[in-house]
Amino acid sequence: MKPTFTIIIFILFFCRGYSQTYKPFDTISFEKRKLFLKEFKSRNDQKIKEIKKTYSGKVSKEMEAVYKSQFEDFSRTIDNKELYFDDNLQNYIQKILTEITRNNPVLADKKISVYFSRDPEANAYSIGDGTIIFNLELLKYLNDEAEIGYIICHEIAHYTLNHRDKSIEKEISSQNLKDAKALEKDLKKSKFNKQIKSESFAKNSIYSRKNRSRLQEFQADSLGLDYFKKTNYNSASSINLLKHLSKTDIETDSLPRVSYPKNFTTKNQKFIKEWVAMEDYSKYSYSKENIFKWDVDSLKTHPNCEQRIEKINKLVKNSKTNYYADKAFFDDLKKRIEYEQIYSNYYIKNYGLSLYDALKLKEKNPKSVYLKEMIASNLDALANAKKEMRINSYIPSINPTEQTKSQQYYFNFVANLTLSELEQLALDYKN
Q1: Hey, which residues does 116 pair with through a beta bridge?
Q2: pTM, rounded to two decimals
Q3: pLDDT one-digit tens code per residue, 271-326
Q4: CB 414 within 8 A of CB 395
């Protein structure tokens, strides 16, 4: 059930200062979503026709099944309104794409489209049919528009190099099937070491797949840089981007512990010290003994950013000015991104993360009307989840190996709140 407070977010004042009020970008345009799905279906159908011409037999059928499944999965993403269809956003990303294609005649006949997404992962990816998805979360880590340009060039390179098809084809190649069948026969005959043999096969298969993916990233870096260097953007921004990307999995700020009594002492609810009582989780074991060890480096899909920088550094020339297709819009996006992502996470039902980020931003802007509304909405949603015994869907268990001290403290705090306390806090923030 949608929180009753959702409607408030849609009628917030037009933003004059984001510290006070904020109006999120549009994802609810029914007509634009309908048009996108129609075009996406056409692209997918065309891709399947190309597969039938290029491949045959079992490989062709299985590749066709993958793309049909991808279409269904991605269509659900569109139905969930995760993609942006805001005219201003789309016009902006189109300006950047035009700068790239206009200066690369080889791309003239390629039907390439780029869309922003609400997905909270700092990532961008090519679907394989000319559609590129750029998660707006990435903007938090970028310093200039040129870095957006290089990301798009990199994803275009994945598309033009046909990496998606090649990866799928490799996965379902006859050689892999033969190896699997041979292993199956061997295991049936073996009396000993069956688990060791099956684990060894699984490792080799996955290591091989990840190694291919890392090789593809190097290839996309190289070709993407060729595209990028032909634009008016400063090619040195590609190096800056890779430096930023190496830090996307590091939390850049935290929620001070002193903020809890301040934010959760309300008109009708006093702060209770037991809310922040924590066990010592540092000695807990989070791995199962029967899971065999993996060579972590071999499981990395993307190469280490330092390796990528080393490979393309010699090809970069810092000889251009800092070009922008629309500097004013980029600067505005940078100001908006923290506020936008709080709403995005709430909108796609990441209530725990949305509340955490709203509380952190409130430390900088304690009088923000928008943040107060978002805290109320998320508390309301978490109260509903608690009532329906689904709170664990939004508040994960404590895991010191994957979470910062600040995140652990926050997850523990929310887990300690009772239903009545959550409901009272939500009600007090609304009023």
Answers
A1: 134
A2: 0.79
A3: 999 999 987 766 665 544 433 343 333 334 455 777 788 778 878 876 667 899 99
A4: yes
DSSP secondary structure letters along 368-429 = -HHHHHHHHHHHHHHHHHHHTT-GGGTSPPP-TTTS-HHHHHHHHHHHH--HHHHHHHHHHH
Q: How far apart are CA 392 and CA 351, in angstroms?
A: 11
Continuous segment of H or E residues that includes residue 68 = helix 57-79
Residue 406 clears pLDDT 90, i.e. is over it: yes
Radius of gyration over every alpha carbon of the chain, rounded to an integer in angstroms: 24
From residue 157, how far is each of 215, 227, 266 by CA, in Å? 13, 8, 53
| Residue carrying structure tokens 């950013």 | 305
Quote the CA–CA distance of 394 and 344 in Å, as a whole number: 14
User: In a 10 Å sphere around its CB, with 0-12 CB exposed, 13-18 middle and 19+ buried, how is residue 344 labelled?
Assistant: buried
146, two tokens: 């040129």
Amino acid identity, position 355: L
Which position has the token pair 């330092």?
Answer: 306
